[in-house]
């Protein structure tokens, strides 16, 4: 059984992806990934779609929270 995929929104940083997931571009080409990888959320990475840590250098700020339903 494969591990359930999870995407974690890191405060002021990347999207951390873990589990059984395939990352493909618009044309269906598969990106080579590891079991766990980070996607850029600030838009300034020089290695898009992957995070290269640039968010720390530019002071990217974002800390969204999921809304819990009653």
Provide tags for this entry.
single chain, 70 residues, mainly beta, Ribosomal Protein L9, domain 1, three-stranded antiparallel sheet, 7% helix
What are the SSEs and their pairings?
Blueprint: E1 6-9, E2 15-18, E3 36-39, H1 54-58
Antiparallel strand pairs: 1-2, 2-3
Note down, in words, how this protein is organized.
The chain is mainly β and 70 residues long. The chain has one domain: CDGSH iron-sulfur domain, mitoNEET-type (Ribosomal Protein L9, domain 1), CATH 3.40.5.90. The chain has 1 helix and 3 strands. The protein has a 3-stranded antiparallel beta sheet, with no helix packed on it. The longest helix is centred in the last third of the chain and has 5 residues. The mean pLDDT is 96.
Strand segment count: 3
Q: What share of the residues lie within helices?
A: under 10%
Order of SSEs: EEEH
The DSSP helix count reads: 1
The H-level CATH homologous superfamily, spelled out, is: CDGSH iron-sulfur domain, mitoNEET-type
The percentage of residues in β strands lies in: 15-25%
Organism: Ornithinibacillus caprae
InterPro entries: FeS-contain_CDGSH-typ, MitoNEET_CISD
Keywords: 2Fe-2S, Iron, Iron-sulfur, Metal-binding
Protein name: CDGSH iron-sulfur domain-containing protein
Give a nutshell description of this structure.
The protein has 70 residues and is mainly beta. The protein has one helix at 54-58; strands spanning 6-9, 15-18, 36-39.
């Amino acid at each position: 059984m494969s591990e359930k995929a999870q995407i974690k929104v890191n405060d002021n940083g990347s999207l951390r992806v873990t589990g059984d997931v395939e990352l493909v571009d618009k044309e269906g080409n598969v990106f080579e990934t590891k079991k766990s990888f980070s996607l850029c959320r600030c838009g300034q990475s020089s290695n898009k779609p992957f995070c290269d840590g640039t968010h720390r250098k530019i002071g990217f700020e974002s800390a969204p929270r999921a809304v819990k339903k009653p």
